[in-house]
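Appendix B, Record 12. Input sequence as logged:
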Amino acid sequence: MVAATVVASAAEQTITIRDWTGRGFAPEVISYDVPSAGAWKLRVTGPNGSSLPVQIMAGATKARSVLLFPADLPKDATMTYKVSDSGKAGPAEVGIRSDGDTLVLTNTLLAVRVPRVQQRKGVAGRNLPAPIVAFQSSGGPWRGAGRMVVEWQWPAMPPVPARAALR
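Logged structural output:
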């Protein structure tokens, strides 16, 4: 893959990504360093001209941010993405919703059900909820019945030989 720096300005920038590995890449999250000023306005369009979902997160300093967007890269292909501060925002491909005592985290490929409470102090391991309660693939049935399994096993200790010499 090729790295590039994108500036958060009215000028459209082009990001070109090329597969040099000969294997291609499934949808990946691509990240680029951008100036923080105006970063929240950035939009990305894919090779076919469609708007992509973007996320902006804090960078290494207050003056810098990180632009994140999804990209596919077929085997031996070159893909071009356009970044600008105009145009419409891409669809939200991720979501979170409350479902009883769990949260459901979703994207276009799967959903994961996790316990609402993830931090507890002074609780025996066997009483903790599983970190993932269940998962769902592309709108299919929920699968799994996650539970925390805690077992303590102490390895058998062989006898330790000892020698003593009295003088």
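The first strand starts at residue 13 and ends at 18.
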